[in-house]
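Issue 218. Parser rejects a valid record. Input:
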Amino acid sequence: MKDQDQEARLLVLVALGSSRREQRYFRPGGLLLRPKDLCIVEAEEGEEFGEVVRGPEQVRPEELDYPIRRVLRRATEEDRHRLLANKADGERALVIAREMVRRRGLPMKLLSAEYSFDRQRLTFYFASPQRVDFRELLRELAAYFQARIKLLQIGPREETQLLGGLGRCGRTLCCATFLRNPESISMRMVYEQELFVPPERVTGLCGRLLCCLRYEHEHYVEALAKLPHIGSRIKHDGKKGKVVGHNIFKGTTIIELEDGRRVEVPGLSKEDVV
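Output the parser choked on:
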């Protein structure tokens, strides 16, 4: 009984659909699955294509806010061709839907269209600065495509994740590659990392704070906690000064002396504050 309970909690994380935007845990169903494996999973209605992101790993089902379904099989070559065909049809559907939106004069920008693997559902992602009454559009789309239509309004972060691009570092955006569920970023993180720069230097293409500000945040906080705070008065080499900055990579403190000179001093701690 204990082994059965343990097996029920051994799950794999799967990114769903051709866009891989949504991720959910599934029971592997006896299959030996590894990251990057393509598979067909049980969906709310029918089947869905997916790619294994992580696992198998122990997960507590009660921590998830959705029912745990199962992986049906590994994806076949036929399944892959079907996915490509669905993706192409989704692109054509997007062109048609954009014309419908234009004719109705709706304040919405359609970004992407995606068929479910079994083609029972067609999802449109759109951006808009306001709430949109798209009931008539929904009926027109359903009648034209003969499928269940979902219109999902997404925010600036999700829009950028969907469209992709290059970040300030010159590399492909994290959210468009591996970062599927960005965590919240606050200006407090910017201050705690002593990034005293213009706002545009810490802002991403989405107009929000850079997701990468979180990556090393804990390290910054831990390192800076050992050093004298900015504004502290320090006595060094017989001279008094004020802390104006740090270099956490070298573990040094930058002091502005009374004569205006700045020196970078290693090995200082809060005990050196006068």
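Fixed in the parser; the record now loads. The longest strand covers residues 47-58.
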